[in-house]
Design a protein that fits this description.
This protein is α/β, with parallel strands linked by helices. It contains 14 helices and 9 strands. It has 2 domains: about 5-90, no CATH class; about 105-345, Aldolase class I (TIM Barrel). About 35% of the residues lie in helices and about 10% in strands.
Length: about 350
């Protein structure tokens, strides 16, 4: 039970989390970037602080205050906190966990364009992101060598325009919504002139972790895109989807976005049938369809998040028996060099 002094610290910390700038760029600048601040604001057990400091030296801590405000004070096992909290386990060398688990480097030509799958091309628009998820599959990616923004798009646009097999362009990063509207608009305007590009897909965490990003200026830019637009958000737990996030998603839908969600199955975050079912239900409440539930990409520093495939299949059996089919995401794994993601099947055991 918390005593009076603890309650006062928690109240002060949550008040500080709530006192952020109104504009999304200001909120990005005010993100929590050191373990001491995170621990103080959330009144976390200080025994875990030295490990957090050590791990943050290998992959920086960054979490928007808007997301931190949804975390449970004092709870080191909060599922939102676990996604951003640096741990000593990240420093362990584990066989099979490598720097580039999904083969991004082999698919890159050095100008920010990744062309792994037929009909689709992915642009690494920026290395910037509002949040550093500890399980990030690009935590070791060399953005300096593959950042399209540094080359002002020209090489990428020319390559896409010259390949009429590309029907869909995916904007990724980092997070493409970390770009200023002027830069993002310049890119989407050039893509709009390529007739064989029928769809534009935006992969972004920002509507979830920084809902202020979906402001009036961005929505004007978004509404002007002529292609069919799919926005793939990333939420792993229902607690991420508060009322502010729901409003941001509603604004995207009102401007023509098809909303899908990708999750990663993470030990200690959502490796529980109740948590996965609650996530799907909450997503649908927000107008988002569950799309993929990814097995962890085996990136160095992330082994402590891995859930065995057998456990994942058992979880899928449980939620498939509980939810309508349209709320059950595809269980998938990405394998370097494969022509598509591998969708992992599961079946219900026959009655004895």
């Amino acid at each position: 039970m918390h005593n009076g002094a603890t309650h006062s610290r928690i109240h002060a910390g949550r008040a500080s989390l709530a006192q952020t700038g109104t504009g999304w760029q200001q909120q990005m600048r005010e993100a929590i970037t050191d373990a001491d601040t995170l621990f103080a604001l959330l009144d976390l057990p200080r025994a875990h602080l030295p490990a957090a400091r050590r791990a943050a030296r290998t992959f920086p801590l960054q979490v928007p205050r808007a997301l931190a405000a949804r975390m449970r004070p004092g709870d080191i096992d909060d599922p939102l906190l676990r996604q951003v909290l640096p741990l000593d386990a990240e420093c362990d060398a584990v066989p099979g966990f490598v720097a580039d688990a999904v083969g991004d480097t082999a698919s890159a030509a050095g100008d920010g364009l990744l062309h792994k799958y037929h009909g689709r091309a992915l642009i690494v628009t920026t290395g910037a992101c509002a949040i550093n998820c500890r399980y990030c599959f690009r935590r070791h990616f060399d953005y300096a060598a593959h950042n399209v923004a540094r080359r002002r798009w020209h090489s990428v646009i020319e390559r896409i325009a010259a390949d009429d097999s590309i029907a869909e362009v995916i904007l990724s990063g980092g997070d493409p919504l970390s770009l200023a509207d002027s830069k993002l608009g310049a890119l989407t305007e050039q893509l709009a002139d390529i007739q064989h590009v029928r769809r534009l897909r935006i992969h972004t965490r920002q509507p979830v972790v920084l809902p202020a990003r979906i402001d009036a200026a961005f929505l004007r830019l978004f509404a002007a895109i002529p292609q069919q637009c799919i926005v793939v958000i990333h939420a792993n737990h229902a607690n991420e989807l508060d009322a502010q996030v729901a409003r941001a998603l509603a604004r995207l839908r009102a401007n023509g976005a098809l909303l899908l969600n990708q999750s990663v199955l993470l030990r200690g975050v959502n490796d529980d049938a109740d948590a996965l079912a609650a996530l799907s239900e909450r997503l649908f409440d927000c107008g988002v369809l569950p799309y993929y539930l990814h097995l962890l990409d085996r990136v160095a520093g992330t082994a402590h998040f891995e859930v065995p495939a057998e456990r994942a299949e058992a979880l899928m059996q449980t939620i498939a028996a509980r939810l309508p089919g349209y709320l059950v995401p595809k269980l998938a794994r990405e394998t370097a060099g494969a022509p598509a993601k591998s969708v992992i099947g599961y079946r219900f055991p026959a009655d004895d």
